[in-house]
Amino acid sequence: MTADQIYHYLLWFIFIISALTFVATLLFTNPYGRFMPKDQRFTIASLPGWLIMEFPCVVVFAWTFSYGENRAALVPLIFLTIWQSHYFYRSIIFPLRMRDRGKRMPIMAVLVGVVFNSINGFLNAYAIVNLAPHLLDAAWLSTPWFIGGICLMVIGLGINMYSDNVLRNLRKPGETGYKIPYGGMYRWISVPNYFGEIIEWCGLAMAACTPAALSFAIFSFSNLFPRALAHHRWYRETFEGYPPERKAIIPGLV
Ligand SMILES: NC(=O)c1ccc[n+]([C@@H]2O[C@H](COP(=O)([O-])OP(=O)(O)OC[C@H]3O[C@@H](n4cnc5c(N)ncnc54)[C@H](OP(=O)(O)O)[C@@H]3O)[C@@H](O)[C@H]2O)c1
After folding, report:
1. I need a surface site. Which of 18, 113, 126, 170 has the fewest CB within 10 A?
2. Collapsing DSSP states into helix, strand and coil, what is residue 105?
3. What is the pTM of this model?
4. Which parts of the chain fold into alpha helices (H)?
């Protein structure tokens, strides 16, 4: 099988998995974080768990890129930098900044994450470095696609990081419980970190205009939208005084 064929099969796999994930996550919430049962077996500490789960995105993307036809072209190199910066943050800085070091997560969630992130890293790097002739001309950098997409990415990342920061500061060192978050987009929605994440990957899909980047944006939505509904329900059931005007993930709507 050629690398191109592997790419196309995996791309279809992600589109199909996205549809299945959407339905499955509406019915059953992935059991990590607040949804992990107290008696969950086969767990790993969150810090190494996040690192193991997210780091394949850094390694597989870099490895695939390093063999790519257009690995020396300017625009692909810019996408390499953007991708690696995000995943350096997500796999190393984000878990290192978590307050509750005793927290654990299911090993199964980590394994599924490793598989997804490896495929996703491969697809996105392969598409950018081999299958995107539009990215070979530096003029792409001045198109509305690139500029608009990068603006969306920056806005999404800003919302995501700010919102994660609000959550992090809710717990004093040693605390493990949950509180109502306030400030930023928490004024309007319960889970702005997921909202920002989805916006960010929609931005990448727009800036790169590859099917792989689109598949990642769709997967992020399929995974995070139903989970955001579950978070919202959980907040409402858990806190009596939960702000009634707050929606789940889309301000003013859902
Ligand atoms: N692209 C994707 O498909 C994808 C998938 C998953 C995650 N992500 C990103 O990864 C990051 C983490 O995801 P996540 O699902 O772990 O987010 P999360 O459930 O919002 O939790 C983030 C952190 O904040 C803590 N926390 C959450 N709500 C809290 C509250 N009310 N009071 C006190 N602490 C609270 C959590 O602690 P606990 O662990 O104790 O709950 C965890 O340490 C997010 O930025 C998300 O966008 C992306």
Report:
1. 170
2. strand
3. 0.95
4. 3-27, 46-66, 74-88, 94-96, 107-130, 144-170, 192-208, 211-238
* Tokens 């943050």 found at: 89
Residue range 221-249: mean pLDDT, rounded: 97
pLDDT of residue 145: 98
Distance from the CA of 47 to the center of ligand 1, in angstroms?
13
* Backbone region of residue 140 per phi and psi (left: phi > 0; alpha: psi in -120 to 50; beta: other values): alpha
Residue 172 is predicted with a pLDDT of: 87
What is the residue extent of each domain of the chain? 3-238
In ligand 1, the atom with minimum distance to the C-alpha of 194 is 47
| Residue-level pLDDT at 74 | 98
Classified as helix, coil or strand, 172 is coil
Q: Which helix (H) or strand (E) holds 28?
A: none
Beta bridge partners of 45: 104
Ligand 1 pocket mutation pick from 22, 163, 166, 197 by most atoms within 8 angstroms of CB: 197
Nearest CA to ligand 1 atom 25: 167
Q: Residue 150 in contact with residue 88, Cβ under 8 Å?
A: no
pLDDT band at 97 (very low <50, low <70, confident <90, very high): confident
Ligand 1 closest atom vs CA 191 = 20
Quote helix, strand, coil % in the chain, to nearest 5.
70, 5, 25
Q: How confident is the model at residue 174 (pLDDT cuts 50, 70, 90)?
A: confident
Distance of alpha carbon 220 from alpha carbon 161, whole angstroms: 16
Query: Cα(218)–Cα(181) distance, rounded to whole angstroms?
Result: 27
Is 161 close to ligand 1, i.e. is its CB under 6 Å away? no
Exposure string over 192-204, b if 16+ CB within 10 A, otherwise e: bbbbbbbbbbbbb
